[in-house]
Amino acid sequence: MAAIRNIVILTGAGVSAESGLETFRAADGLWENHRVEDVATPEAFARDPELVQRFYDMRRTAIMQAQPNPAHAALARLDAAWPGALLLVTQNIDDLHERAGATRVLHMHGEGLSAWCTACDARIGWSRSLLDEPPCPSCGATALRPDIVWFGEMPYRMDDIFDALREADLFVSIGTSGAVYPAAGFVRQARECGARTLELNLEASQGSAWFHETRLGPASALVPQWVEEILVTRS
Ligand code: NAD
Ligand code: APR
Q: Which of 11, 58, 221, 226 could form a disulfide with 15 if both were Cys (CB 3.0 to 4.6 A apart)?
């Protein structure tokens, strides 16, 4: 295998499934029990802010009750063993990668434990409910919303992600259905820039054809196994 200097890893809801956090498009997933149009769009928030705040209160509580699983731990081990090589781009709004010890984590869809003040644009660590419309700690306005990228909004830090994909020697996708863009297009961008591409997922995804290799199974088994392999090749 050619020298690997830069690794970009994309994670989706599947990496946190074994920590007890619901995925979106599974049979009993979030989008089976909630309509995107009701809880995950700016129009929904304008129409019924209480419903949206309750949805994210529920997700915030679930995040705080969850613990990192062996997949999160293995990625943190990789990060520690290979300083500066790994960028972890996650579509997830939980903080399990960070709690497992990963250092370079980029939340492209925002963070469940953060609030965004639409008056002063501050982003504030937030673990309580927003239902009672608390004032922004920075400017005092009652203008806090979940710090989440909703359908129709632009994901965060896309320039940084595209730069990393251009430089990637290895692109690994873990626990995502490949249903939602722009994340679903990252594998093609990485491959066209020369990266080797690997998918670790419970089942084939919508992007599986773009990967040099796909391994199917639970992330808690596949990710530690792959991390051990890649660290052996490095040493
Ligand atoms: P998109 O066109 O990127 O995504 C459309 C996809 O969203 C569809 O393929 C489908 O998989 C899913 N979807 C749309 N409506 C749905 C529904 N009613 N039920 C179930 N699934 C549904 O969407 P977009 O508007 O271009 O999104 C822009 C960005 O916002 C994307 O990166 C997206 O991932 C992100 N986003 C984040 C959240 C969140 O909760 N963090 C929710 C929605 C979108
Ligand atoms: N191990 C590995 N993969 C798993 C596991 C597991 N234990 N459990 C589920 N998966 C896989 C499923 O097979 C599926 O392919 O994880 C994927 C989860 O897909 P989705 O539910 O669509 O979640 P995700 O791909 O993260 O959704 C992308 O859509 O609604 C938006 O913003 C939201 O970030 C989300 C984005």
A: 11
- Residue 212 a catalytic site member: no
Give the distance (Å) from ligand 2 centre to CA of residue 194: 26
Decide if 1 is inside a domain.
Answer: no
- Closest atom, ligand 2, to C-alpha of 12: 26
Residue numbers of the domain that contains 137: 30-65+116-148
- How far CA 70 is from CA of 76, 90, 224, in Å, comes to 10, 17, 7
Closest ligand, as measured to the CA of 175: 2
Q: What is the ipTM metric for this complex?
A: 0.81
Is 91 a domain residue? yes
- Per-residue pLDDT of the chain in tens (235 residues, 90 and over written 9): 568 999 999 999 999 999 999 998 888 888 888 888 999 999 999 999 999 999 999 999 999 999 999 999 999 999 999 999 999 999 999 999 999 999 999 999 999 999 999 999 999 999 999 999 999 999 999 999 999 999 999 999 999 999 999 999 999 999 999 999 999 999 999 999 999 999 999 999 999 999 999 999 999 999 999 999 999 988 6
Pick the closest to residue 105 from 156, 61, 175, 166 (CA basis): 156
For residue 175, give the CATH number of its domain: 3.40.50.1220
Q: How far is the CA of 212 from the centre of ligand 1 (A)?
A: 26
Residue 95 inside a domain? The answer is yes
